[in-house]
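ESCALATION

Customer reports they have been waiting on this structure for their group meeting. Please prioritize. Original submission:
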Amino acid sequence: MLRYAAGEVAAFEVLYGRHKGGVFRYLLRHGAGNASEELAQDVWASLIRVRVQYQVTAKFTTWLYRLAHNRLIDFYRAEGRAEWVSRDADDGTDDIVTALPGLRTAQPEVQVESNNIADRMRAAIASLPEAQREAFLLQQEGGLSVAEIAEATSVPEETAKSRLRYAINKLRAQLEDLL
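Update from on-call: job pushed to the front of the queue and completed.
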């Protein structure tokens, strides 16, 4: 990011290539649905807009996911929603999720099983309370540490740690038969 802030355009391509999928999935799994792609572009546009003022105050991914977190808050405020929403399986975004890069075998029975597991996991994540879901997604999609999650969400580190622990315990209980 420092190289990009200094005017090296190729550095942006590296940042975008490394983090575009994680940012998109973070927004999508927070229930932004069809707006996820637009929100992701807004996050990257914000990064471009503020690149000259960028200062290292945290790990880059913490800063980037803070931008994404703030964009989600703005989106839901503009929508007039007081609560976070979860993504329905029928909202038309399954094709986007399936198109994301990943290793998948072409065997239909494996794809069906994978889809069933993915549906269960999405439902389990969606059933988490909003704060726990956010902590979990920041760790899993963003690769953020507990300290970085705390910073990105403006909560004490112990709160972030508790939210993450409760989220993991609830997910394990719901998906126990898959473990």
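Sent to customer with the following note: Residues 31 and 86 are 4 Å apart (CA to CA).
Escalation resolved.
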